[in-house]
Specification:
The complex is a heterodimer. Chain A is built from 13 helices and three strands; from the N terminus they run H-H-H-H-H-H-H-H-H-H-E-H-H-E-E-H. Chain A is mainly alpha-helical. Chain A has a three-stranded antiparallel beta sheet. Chain A starts with a helix and ends with a helix. Among the domains of chain B are: 1-26, no CATH class; 259-376; 384-441, Orthogonal Bundle (Arc Repressor Mutant, subunit A), CATH 1.10.10.10. Chain B contains 25 helices and three strands. Chain B has a three-stranded antiparallel beta sheet with strand order 1-3-2. The relative contact order of chain B is 0.05. Classes of the chains: A mainly alpha, B mainly alpha. Chain A binds chain B through residues 90, 119-120, 123-129, 132-134, 136, 150, 153-159, 186-187, 189-196, 198-199, 202, 206, 242, 245-246, 249-250, 253, 257, 260, 264, and chain B through 239-243, 246, 276-279, 362, 365-366, 371-372, 375-376, 378-379, 382, 407-409, 411-412, 414-422, 428-430, 432-433, 448, 451, 455, 458, 462, 465. Chain A: Belongs to the proteasome subunit S14 family. Chain A: One of its GO terms (biological process) is proteasome-mediated ubiquitin-dependent protein catabolic process.
Chain lengths: 265, 513
């Protein structure tokens, strides 16, 4: 190894990372030092002639980095670590021994894309996974986000809610919370258009609220009319007002047709 | 096809035209009954290339390259050797370097005599050609190399050799840096990629392709650039690197003058990227373009099938049901059987049937790289199912929906119906207390959305018209001919008028007699 200092730092990081509970601050500080070390030894963006053992160590450091960033709830930092890992996962795939943290990390990335509602990116990433399609449903780390996405798209929100506890790794929980916020908003927008009125009690179950005060607060945020005496939420009907003819648009379209026709004749 | 652009005088053009047509026609007549020997064909191709280089007219080179596929199948060691021997002077350095790629002729010393003896017997090469005294243009050498590479592809043992040869050839092209090389270079890059792929190391070619793409873009080698962009996209998609492929597309401009096959491929790759990114309507337009630009189904059945497979899936994902006639097409019928089954399942809106079909054809879909796309159809199946229910019932309990669509729980059914209402799939209402869904018939068939759809369709037709106008090709200087004809007609009219005048006079004169 290029520097002995890097090796001691790496051992230190492993020790701190494996200790429970993990001292995230210390991990962060060690990672910062290690990253500088990696840059100095030219391992952060490795070239083909790098030593195999060194590459494995570098990959390990970056993987720990991704997991630490999730634990510290620092998504941009996770993003950076993950994109640095890409080189190790794709370009050096055939040379390096497989890492046991690879799929958890990839799964975390998928969940992140899902919570940020970047569905297109989610699918592109999914396509580029080095897995045959039938293994996607077998690998627990990947199957979890894939199922979540499918249920979200179908509208089986209760399944998403129930799957919240089945996360394959503790780090997944961090994203699951923000996912629940997204789901609630989705359900709320569905309810607005699908129901005329809804009893408070049922609304609470549909939105997965346990206490009525939470529900009332949420209803206020969405601007719903709550009738406390009858125990009902009323949803305003929106789509009866739009009878106006979009003149501007029609005129513009007709002008385009005229111009095109003129070109043809 | 055979107008000569260099001729300056109108009459000459016409004359040459006729001549060209005649030779063309006679050639065709010749070709049909007795196809020329490959050696003779190579020879005439070389003449065409030289003419193309001399006249700065890439059309002739294109014509040579069009015959490549047919010619490729008939090549063997002897034919290529003969052709090389025939077209290069005996002491040429290029010749020896070209010949070094072929295994030594079995009776090495006799081969020359045999050739000489065999040649006059050939059906077309009846005119004994004098041995050339100087090397032909470098394009010819590259053309020979192209033939060699294709020939090496034919057998497995030569894959490593073909990689080596194509690399060397590419270096050579870049050193020469000739504009007239462009069409042949594009083919060479294709052959290079194929060499690498056959050798099983497609990814290794990527840095070289990227560098070449940059150079080609700077030098405005349109054909090469188009070919290279397609090579790169193919390489990315082969390894499922959709992100990189998308970035490449956004950073490059595909040359508008590229040939139709290249454009068709490009649109196919674009369609694939867009479909993966869930941008189905864009994917749909791209694939439509690809189908329209593709060579006829009988000529390139593989491409035709691949595009249609993707096209069917994208149509399904958009919520449309593909045309039944697509699956009756003779070229497609067999290849698309699995997709036809899927379409049937989606159409009936039955999740269980869909799942069964999916499992049945999983391996084929996997091989086509369609599996993940098809899995996405699940929600479409549900949506179709709900829509059918909403059309046939005015009121249906959530429990029944759940049973009919094979959903897991009533709770799910409620969410799913809610989402369908919000997404505008159906028009209806859920009455939670009673646990049923009420559907209103379609109330307003006419609204702003109708004019939008109408506008979209008109836009499509106009686009189609404009594309076809752009795709038309006109022979160079054709307008001059027309002008000349018009001129001639005017002249004749004048003469006629004069004659009539005189004739009239004559008539009158006669009448007087």
């Amino acid at each position: 190894m290029a520097s002995r200092q890097l090796a001691t730092l790496y051992r230190e990081l492993q020790r701190v990372f494996d200790a429970r509970p993990t001292d995230l601050k210390k991990c962060g500080a060690l990672l910062d030092q290690l990253k500088i070390g990696l840059i100095q030894t030219g391992l952060l963006i490795p070239t083909a002639e790098a030593n195999l053992q060194d590459l494995v160590v570098a990959r390990d450091i970056l993987e720990i980095g991704t997991i630490c960033s999730i634990r510290a709830k620092d998504v941009p930092s996770f993003d950076r670590f993950f994109s640095q890992l890409q080189t190790f996962y794709t370009d050096f795939r055939s040379v390096l021994p497989p890492s046991k943290r690879e799929f958890p990390v990839r799964g975390l990335n998928l969940i992140r894309l899902l919570t940020q509602n970047r569905i297109a990116d989610f699918h592109t990433t999914l396509e580029s996974l080095p897995l045959p399609a039938d293994e996607i449903s077998v690998n627990p780390y990947i199957a979890h986000p894939v199922n979540l996405e499918r249920w979200l798209m179908e509208g089986s929100y209760s399944k998403v809610w129930n799957a919240r506890e089945e996360a394959p790794a503790p780090e997944y929980k961090f994203f699951v919370d923000s996912l629940m916020g997204t789901i609630r908003n989705e359900i709320a927008s569905c309810e607005e258009s699908a129901y005329e009125r809804l009893p408070l009690k049922d609304a609470a179950t549909l939105l997965f609220f346990t206490s009525q005060s939470d529900l009332l607060k949420f209803a206020q945020e969405r601007g719903w009319q709550v009738d406390l005496t009858a125990g009902l939420i009323k949803f305003a009907r929106k789509n009866d007002e739009q009878t106006e003819i979009p003149k501007q648009k029609l005129i513009a379209a007709n002008l385009v047709y005229a111009r095109e026709l003129e070109q043809i004749v | 096809m055979s107008t000569s652009p260099t001729a300056s005088k109108d009459k000459k053009v016409e004359e040459k035209d006729k001549k060209g047509d005649k030779t063309d026609a006679s050639k065709k007549v010749e070709e049909k009954p007795v196809p020329p020997t490959p050696t003779a064909e190579i020879k005439s191709n070389i003449a065409l290339i030289e003419r193309a280089v001399g006249d700065l007219e890439p059309r002739f080179t294109h014509r040579v390259l069009r015959s490549l596929t047919a010619l490729r199948k008939r090549l063997d060691n002897k034919i290529i050797r003969d052709a090389i021997e025939e077209n290069y002077p005996s002491d040429s350095a290029v010749k020896t370097s070209l010949l070094s790629w072929l295994p030594a002729a079995p009776p090495a010393d006799q081969s020359m005599d045999v050739d000489a003896a065999a040649q006059p017997n050939g059906p077309v090469a009846s005119t004994p050609s004098p041995k050339p005294t100087s090397d032909p243009v470098p394009e010819v050498e590259i053309y020979f190399r192209l033939l060699l590479i294709h020939h090496l592809h034919a057998s497995k043992d030569n894959y490593a050799k073909s990689v080596e040869l194509s690399k060397e050839t590419v270096d050579k092209i870049q050193q020469l840096n000739r504009r007239s090389m462009d069409p042949i270079a594009a083919k060479i890059w294709f052959a290079l990629e194929r060499s690498y792929e056959l050798g099983g190391e497609l990814a290794d070619a990527r840095p070289m392709l990227l560098a070449a793409q940059r150079t080609a873009a700077l030098r405005h080698d349109d054909d090469t650039q188009a070919s290279l962009i397609n090579r790169l996209l193919r390489s990315y998609l082969h390894y499922n690197l959709y992100d990189q492929a998308d970035k490449l597309v956004s950073k490059t401009t595909f040359p508008a003058s590229a040939s139709n096959p290249q454009l068709a491929r490009y649109h196919y790759y674009l369609g694939r990227i867009k479909a993966v990114q869930l941008n189905y309507s864009a994917a749909h337009t791209n694939l439509q373009q690809a189908i329209r630009r593709a060579p006829p189904a009988k000529v390139a059945p593989g491409f035709y099938q691949a595009v249609h497979k993707l096209f069917v899936v994208v149509e399904l994902l958009m919520g449309d049901i593909p045309d039944r006639s697509t699956f009756r097409h003779p070229v497609l019928q067999k290849a698309l059987q699995a997709y036809f089954d899927i379409v049937k399942a989606v159409r009936t809106g039955s999740l269980s049937e869909f799942q069964a079909t999916l499992n049945k054809h999983a391996s084929q879909l996997e091989a086509d790289k369609m599996y993940t796309l098809i899995v996405r159809l699940r929600q479409n199946v549900i949506k179709t199912g709900i829509r059918r229910l909403s059309l046939s019932y005015s009121r249906i309990s959530l429990r029944d929906i759940c049973l009919k669509l094979h959903l897991d729980s009533e709770e799910d059914a409620e969410y799913i119906v809610g989402k369908a209402i919000r997404d505008g799939v159906i028009e209806g209402r859920i009455v939670h207390e009673k646990g049923w869904m009420e559907c209103e018939g379609r109330k307003n068939g006419y609204g702003p959305e109708v004019s939008e759809v109408f506008g979209r369709r008109i836009g499509y037709c106009l686009e189609l018209h404009n594309q076809s106008v752009k795709a038309m090709r006109f022979p160079l200087n054709a307008h001059r001919k027309e002008l000349a004809a018009a001129e001639g007609a005017r002249e004749r009219e004048k003469e006629l008028a004069k004659e009539i005048q005189e004739g009239d006079l004559d008539d009158e004169g006669l009448g007087d007699f």
